[in-house]
Amino acid sequence: MLIGDVARRSGVSTRMLRHYESLGLVRPARRTEAGYREYSSEDIRRIFHIESLRSLGLSLREVGFALDDPGFAPSALVDDLIRRTRERIADETELLTRLRRIGAAEPAGWEDVLQIVALLQALGSESAGKRQRAALSSVEEVPVPVEALVEAALSEADPNVAGALRWALAQSGDVGLPLLAEGLGSPVAEVRKRAAQAIAEIPNGEATALLQDALTHSDLVVRRCAGLALGARGVADAVPTLVDMIVEEANDADAADALSTLASDPVLADQIATRLVDCLAHGTHESSARRRLTQALADIPGITASRALEDLSHDEDRAVALTATYILKLRNAR
């Protein structure tokens, strides 16, 4: 069979067939009387083998080794092809993500595109200073797509950079909340914590609703973060979590401050005081926990808290009694 016929039947161009021959992949041994190459059925089978191996991503050199080395073991090469393919997919996925983010920013011209690319690169820099400046610039200059900000915020370990990223997300409103909500479901504890912290800094109703849901989250750190944020927003649902934080000495000073904020509502003040008193009456708490609960009553206004402190000034635990007595003196002096 002549080269033109082979090209038509195999789908491989005559130019490529000549290239295969120049590399020694196919060696048609016969020639016609006119000197044209004549391919045997074995040659044609080899061409199909070459095309099959090329479809797997093998280079022509690797194809040659595979076909001509009698001791060739395909497993190692296939494993290598799998690794290379995964790397290529990862690279292509990263490129696609970058392009989508640039498109989402709706650049007006190439200058905007270049600025966005520069900011995205800076967000991934090894320099914490560059990452922080990029986070701040994402609001003040060309907006960086919120997806990139969320990804950076959920992976950022440096506290200063993380703060700048949370601030940038807060400026974007509720756009990033769905992605941050996904972060709360991450299998990685640090990611869940960062997601909760970022949501806590977004001051709108949708963020508040997410934080209320987070009060029942399986992750204790997420629950505590939500409790502190909701307390500052005046949401009564946070009270049980905040009281537990005082008992467990987990950011107890911040929890007490949040309870004080909530207690500006007279109805809530009595509810908070009642809950603190109930915890104090629970006999299993250690002396240090009872003392912290007593201290928390200091900034809770109302008759319920005052009566509780009066009773506690005669408590069997001397440290609790002295703390209550001191607080009562301060309250009476006001």
Automatic annotation (TrEMBL):
Residues of the HTH merR-type domain: 1-69
Protein's name according to its UniProt entry: MerR family transcriptional regulator
Record keyword DNA-binding present: yes
Pfam families attached to this UniProt entry: HEAT_2, MerR_1
UniProt keywords, alphabetically: DNA-binding
Species of origin: Actinomadura rugatobispora
Keyword DNA-binding: yes
UniProt superkingdom: Bacteria
